[in-house]
Design brief:
Order of helices and strands: EEHEHHHEEEEEHHHHHHHHH
Radius of gyration: 39 Å
Low-confidence stretches: 1-108, 155-160, 504-512
Strand content: 5-15%
Protein name: YibE/F-like protein
Keywords: Membrane, Transmembrane, Transmembrane helix
Mean pLDDT: 74
Structural class: alpha+beta
Pfam families: YibE_F (PF07907)
Largest sheet: 5 strands, antiparallel
Organism: Actinomycetospora straminea
Length: about 525
């Protein structure tokens, strides 16, 4: 006699075991707050005489294959497979089924849309300000041509003055001689001139050979046979050697080779993105050559010119190099915010330090363009544009670090994501500040050596006009650089979580947010 089996108990998770005589012959629907499924229970096998088949091992094995594990069918129509041993597999939950069809809708999609709208709302006014600056500060071509003509007819541009450049090749360079007569020996070394024979390659008399004198002072260049040189022709008789002066060497060929090597290295490493970076570099040079220099030459205020040019470079170069995305928009916002801080600090401390912007090149430029040139503003514009290159590097790298950290752990909390990215940013900013100091020290190395040999103390050295300009430039740029790390990091952490929440449903955890 077979004892009756106890009725099957249902767990709180609403999982069911189909067993006993009371097993239904139709589908069982299981539903609670976590599980939705349909269970098809096969009837227990009976012999023809109606007796139970529980004692037959063969029939038990067959029953295990048929009804040992309920076949769960989810809403998506996928069926679970039954195990041979009768163990049940979990029924797919309703949350999982619903999530795969979400695709960024609902609250998550609305959050991502709000963040994108907020990014656009912050960037659009910056773009409008750049357009207004371009319209109001850029001179007309006729205006710039008039200024250039005026400078050429007066004292001329630095280096060549009002002279016409002519290429040539050195055929012979004699020893020191008297500056008034190349045939007379100099009374003492370093006090005379060197007679240099040059064949003109172009200009008003190509192919003509002239003999010109160059100083033999310690700071003067030394010429050898075959050197390509640039001469300045003052006008007059093109065959008269006295109308020519050697002003520089020709450096076009080695610079072209170096530029080609640089482009090749960028393309080999960056491939298509490297090509985009080279195009972006051309855009940057175009902004400086076609907007910044003409605007400054025609008397526009240097600081607004620098800010407008920086905004234009950020708005064109970053999307061109890194694509149009929330990541790029975040890096652009961090860069622009830091540039604004650098501009304010530069204006403030240049005034407090009573910097004039005077220097050898600035004084010569003031003589060319007239007294209306704002030399202090020119110094501040240099600070802003010089800091942009380093800021670009830091903000883009910091934003990418946040995105990659979130991609590695999409479930990371905002505080954890911010803390991890800040650890990366601290290392980066420490190296970048050192880079700024070394770059400016390297540029001012002859000046620093001159002051050191003059026996002036560190206080006198650092507060001198030429050195103080570099100190203000370095420290202001470094403050903006330091500020850019937390600003960009918190922006990136907020944006990446909001944007990815709207796109993560239906994607793998490794998928990259826009």
């Amino acid at each position: 006699m077979t004892s009756p089996r106890p009725p099957a108990r249902r767990s709180r998770a609403a999982s069911a075991t189909v067993d006993g005589d009371d097993a239904p012959t139709g589908p069982i629907r299981i539903q609670d707050e976590e599980t939705v499924g349909t269970v098809d229970a096969a009837p227990r096998g009976r012999r023809a005489d109606g007796a139970r088949d529980g004692g037959d091992p063969g029939i038990q094995r067959q029953r295990g294959r048929q009804a040992g594990t309920p076949r769960a069918t989810s809403r998506s129509g996928q069926s679970g497979q039954s195990g041979r041993s009768g163990r049940r597999r979990p029924v797919e939950s309703a949350g999982q089924c619903h999530g795969h069809g979400h695709e960024g809708g609902g609250l998550e999609g609305a959050s991502a849309r709000r963040v994108r709208v907020l990014l656009a709302a912050l960037l659009v006014p910056c773009a409008l300000a750049v357009l207004v600056g371009l319209v109001t500060l850029a001179p007309s071509p006729g205006e710039y041509a008039a200024v250039a003509q005026r400078a050429a007819s007066g004292q001329g541009a630095p280096g060549l003055g009002s002279q016409t450049p002519v290429d040539g090749e050195v055929l012979r360079a004699s020893g020191e001689s008297d500056c008034t007569d190349p045939n007379l020996p100099s009374p003492a070394p370093g006090e005379g001139c060197v007679a240099v024979t040059v064949r003109l390659a172009d200009g008003p008399a190509p192919g003509t050979t002239i003999l010109t004198l160059v100083p033999a002072t310690p700071g003067s260049p030394r010429f050898a046979v075959g050197d390509p040189v640039v001469l300045g022709w003052a006008g007059g008789d093109p065959t008269d050697p006295l109308t020519y002066t050697i002003v520089d060497f020709q450096r076009g060929s080695p610079l072209l080779v170096l530029g080609a090597a640089f482009a090749l290295a960028v393309l080999l490493l960056g491939r298509w993105q490297g090509l985009a970076a080279l195009v972006a570099l051309g855009v940057t040079l175009g902004v400086i050559g076609l907007f910044v220099l003409p605007a400054l030459a025609t008397g526009s205020s240097p600081v607004p010119v620098a800010l407008t040019a920086s905004g234009l470079i950020v708005g064109v170069v970053l999307p061109l190099t890194h694509g149009v995305s929330a990541r790029t928009a975040t890096a652009a916002l961090g860069t622009l915010a830091s540039l604004g801080l650098i501009g304010v600090l530069a204006v403030l401390f240049a005034a407090l330090s009573r910097l004039t912007g005077l220097g050898e090149e600035a004084s010569e430029l003031a003589g060319v363009l007239g007294p209306g040139l704002d030399l202090r503003g020119l110094l501040l514009a240099g600070v802003i544009i010089g800091a942009l290159g380093v800021l670009d590097d830091v903000t883009v790298t910091q934003t990418s670090a946040v995105w990659e950290l979130h991609r590695a752990d999409p479930a990371a909390r905002l505080n954890d994501l911010y803390g991890s990215a800040m650890r990366v940013g601290r290392d980066h900013v420490a190296s970048a500040v050192n880079t700024l100091v070394l770059a400016y020290a390297g540029a001012a190395l002859p000046l620093l050596l001159l002051f050191a040999l003059a026996g002036r103390g560190p206080g006198d050295l650092l507060t001198a006009e030429d050195v103080a300009q570099e100190v203000v430039r370095t420290l202001v740029g470094s403050i903006g650089l330091v500020a850019s790390v937390p600003v960009t990091t918190v922006l990136a952490a907020v944006v990446v979580r909001a944007v990815s929440s709207g796109t993560s449903a239906g994607t793998s955890p490794r998928s990259e947010p826009a």
